[in-house]
Amino acid sequence: MRDAVIVDVPAVLALWEAARSPIASTRDDIAAIERLISRHSSSLLVAEIQRELVGAIVAAWDGWRGNMYRLAVAEKQRRRGIGRRLVSAGHERLRSKGAVRVTALVGRDEPEAKELWLSAGYAEDLEIVRFVRNI
To answer: Does any domain span residue 106?
Structure first.
């Protein structure tokens, strides 16, 4: 696992598009990923196998809480522990910044994603409803 760099942007974009959740409501674009890397270089982690980018996760710290989202692993590389290793690397990164609690965003009807997060020690929060608005 390593921090993403600008040259990774096309591969990250392709990975996210291939693994796109059916509930995702906003499109990713090159400028947004470049902005993330430029402003928060340690927030986007990637996994490689033989120089091919096969996984990515955003592990973001807002100074108060940690958030992980956009976890994606190339379809041919799934069920090999890459997702769990990305989550673990995200935990390490967020812990080093001061996070003591992490939220992971997961689609309600995505059983494979839920299984991964549950196996990583997360619990589904039935108390909080998330509200969103595109601006």
So the answer is: yes
- How many domains, in total, are found in the chain? 1
Distance CA 32, CA 88 (A): 24
Distance CA 113, CA 57 (A): 13
Quote the Cα angle for 63-7-51, to 5°: 105
Residue 126 belongs to some domain of the structure: no
Residue 62 lies in a domain: yes
Q: What is the pLDDT of residue 85?
A: 97
What predicted TM-score, i.e. pTM, was given to this entire model?
Answer: 0.90
CATH code for position 45: 3.40.630.30
Domain range enclosing 86: 2-119
Instruction: Give the tens place of pLDDT for each residue, 36-91.
Output: 999 887 899 999 999 999 999 999 998 889 999 999 999 999 999 999 999 999 99
Calculate the average pLDDT of the chain: 91
As a whole number of Å, the end-to-end CA separation of the chain is 33
Q: Which residues contact 127 (CB under 8 A, 6 or more apart)?
A: none
